[in-house]
């Protein structure tokens, strides 16, 4: 897409804001719970513990444009000709506010796009005509028949699933709803900064320990390749890796990366403070030091895309 490489498109403030405000989620109070001034999902069957309020939606929108810029595209699977030609069906699992789908459905108007998320924070009425949303949790099964979609996409849900979920539920469900000959793509990041200074390591160790306490493997990225390659119904498995900078040392892109990560760590402040047994002021000081470390160490992070074809 020609617009991907433009730095002006790194600013999410001019994209999808009106769509988000129209979300039907506001009236669905039973879908949410509130704690420490933030809003969270209220699904007892999910261990995902990041917020889903307006502040988090802003972060997720920033994250979308950030990674689209780094990857220079919204996907890596070889499906461009198919969805450009039209009549293809695309599914985004765990779509959140639907930013990826709003982007894709606008770029490929001849194909149809569907998003599912356990929290109804996606747009309600103001959206492209070729885009629909459903409230669903992949762990409870997707509300679609077998072999429905030509392309099934999912990203940044490593903090929501146990390793057993990945192995025995999530990937199997993505494959189930994908058509034979269709593609699935999973994008995840490594929860390790390169390098990690003392402040960054203390924060990330606490984050990783929190995940482990929920039986979530913070190093699942190291196992997805083997899980996917051992799945007999998949072929043509490919893994791509990208590194992104964190900190103002790398200019605007690094600044936005730091903003994305720091907003996540600030959202986790009540949880991580309790685990680290530190006061709020000490946590804030750690965050400030983490920013300085990123700049002095030229810190980077790594993320991956795994994509494979469902056997025909």
TrEMBL record:
Name of the protein in its database record: Methyltransferase domain-containing protein
Domain Methyltransferase: 90-182
InterPro entries, per the entry: Methyltransf_25, SAM-dependent_MTases_sf
Residue span of region Disordered: 1-29
Top-level taxonomic group: Eukaryota
PANTHER family: 2-METHOXY-6-POLYPRENYL-1,4-BENZOQUINOL METHYLASE, MITOCHONDRIAL, METHYLTRANSFERASE
UniProt feature, compositional bias: Low complexity: 1-26
């Amino acid at each position: 897409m020609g617009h991907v490489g433009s730095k002006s498109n790194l600013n999410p403030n001019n994209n999808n804001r009106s769509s988000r405000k129209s979300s039907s989620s506001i009236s669905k109070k039973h879908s949410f719970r509130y704690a420490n001034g933030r809003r969270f999902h209220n699904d007892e069957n999910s261990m995902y513990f990041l917020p889903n309020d307006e502040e988090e939606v802003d972060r997720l929108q920033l994250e979308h444009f950030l990674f689209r810029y780094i990857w220079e595209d919204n996907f890596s699977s070889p499906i461009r000709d198919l969805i450009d030609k039209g009549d293809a069906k695309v599914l985004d699992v765990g779509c959140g506010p639907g930013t990826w789908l709003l982007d894709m459905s606008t770029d490929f108007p001849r194909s149809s796009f569907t998003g599912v998320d356990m929290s109804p924070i996606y747009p309600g009425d103001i959206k492209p005509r070729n885009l629909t949303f459903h409230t669903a949790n992949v762990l409870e099964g997707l509300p679609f028949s077998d072999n429905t979609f030509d392309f099934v996409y999912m990203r940044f849900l490593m903090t929501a699933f146990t390793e057993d979920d990945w192995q025995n539920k999530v990937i199997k469900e993505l494959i189930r709803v994908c058509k034979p000959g269709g593609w699935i793509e999973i994008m995840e990041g490594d929860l390790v900064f390169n390098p990690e200074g003392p402040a960054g390591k203390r924060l990330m160790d606490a984050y990783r320990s929190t995940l482990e306490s929920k039986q979530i493997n913070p190093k699942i990225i190291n196992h997805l390749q083997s899980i996917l390659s051992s799945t007999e119904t998949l072929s043509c498995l490919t893994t791509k890796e990208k590194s992104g900078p964190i900190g103002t040392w790398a200019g605007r892109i690094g600044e936005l990366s730091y903003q994305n990560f720091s907003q996540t760590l600030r959202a986790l402040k009540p949880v991580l403070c309790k685990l680290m047994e530190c006061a709020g002021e000490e946590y804030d000081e750690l965050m400030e030091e983490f920013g300085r470390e990123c700049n002095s160490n030229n810190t980077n992070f790594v993320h991956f895309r795994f994509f494979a074809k469902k056997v025909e």
